[in-house]
Structures are given as C-alpha cells and as structure tokens.
Amino acid sequence: MGSRILLAAMLALAGPATARAQCQLCPAGGDSAPAAIGDALFPLRVTVETELDFSRMVIASNASGSATLDPRSGARTVSGGLSALGGIPVRGTVRVTGRPLRRLRVSMPAEVELTAPGGGAARLVDLRTDLPGAPRLGILGTVEFRFGGTLRVPAGEAGDYRGRIPIEVDYE
C-alpha cells in the first residue's frame, strides 16, 4: 500500500447565478430566469476516480525530505532525506459532472496534515491540478482533472501517511 494518501471530495453547492437564459418555465410575460434553474437540473457531482499515491519511499538519512508528484506528467521527484524504493506513483484523478459548458471554480487547501498510525506527521503542500485557467464542463457535462503536490516528511518521521484532501467545486 506504500505511502498512500486517502482522499475525500467535498461538494460546495452553487451560489447565486448571474447568467440569464430564455425562460421556458416562466409564466406569461416573464422573459428570463436565473441560470440556477438549469443548474438545479444538473447538480454538480464530484467523484475521486484515483487516489493520490506517492508509492514506496524510505528515509535514507537523518534529514527531512520531500517528494513531489506532478499533476501533468505523473512524475515523482524526491529530495533531501527521502529515496524512492520503486513502485508506481499515482496522481489523483477527479471527475466532475454537471451542467454542460458551465465554468467551474475548483479549490484545494494550501496544506494538509497527514498522519501515520504510529503517530508520525507529515505535510502535503503545493496542491495543484492540470486544469486550464478557466475550466469548463464539456459538451456532455463532464470534466476530468488530475492533481498532485509535495509531500514533506520531517527527519525521523517514517510512516504510512494518510489524510483527507478537501476539494471544492462550484459553478462560477
């Protein structure tokens, strides 16, 4: 299982929409309705398809170390007191479904504390995705993105680290 990091996705409900569309459900005389009506027909759903997994590493010296998992390439780099022991690192993958072509806002925390069963603690920092600057749901109402970050392990803190990464997704 290695240094697997368990994930949980949290869904933030859409706030008030400002876009307006031709109203097919309005009483006579009404010419538009908030886009939130359409959004109610296509609620956002966030599914973690693949958990973030840095794979197997070892503390090779008496120094702190870090491992970075790139969300675009999936490549893992290690530095400091950590050395890779093989295994295949896996970047996280999230699938979002909702109203086709809607713009999204995706946010992740700046830092997450991870813990090991034996009491050790590490930090996951610099979480990022491979999404473009202004992500949108596709024509079929889906988008999939990958994410990664940097695992920072203090000197002497070996363990099978786990934690939850809150991922918020909202319509813009």
Automatic annotation (TrEMBL):
The keyword Signal applies. Pfam families: DUF4402 (PF14352). It comes from the Bacteria. InterPro entries: DUF4402. Residues 1-21 form the signal peptide. Keywords: Signal. This is DUF4402 domain-containing protein.
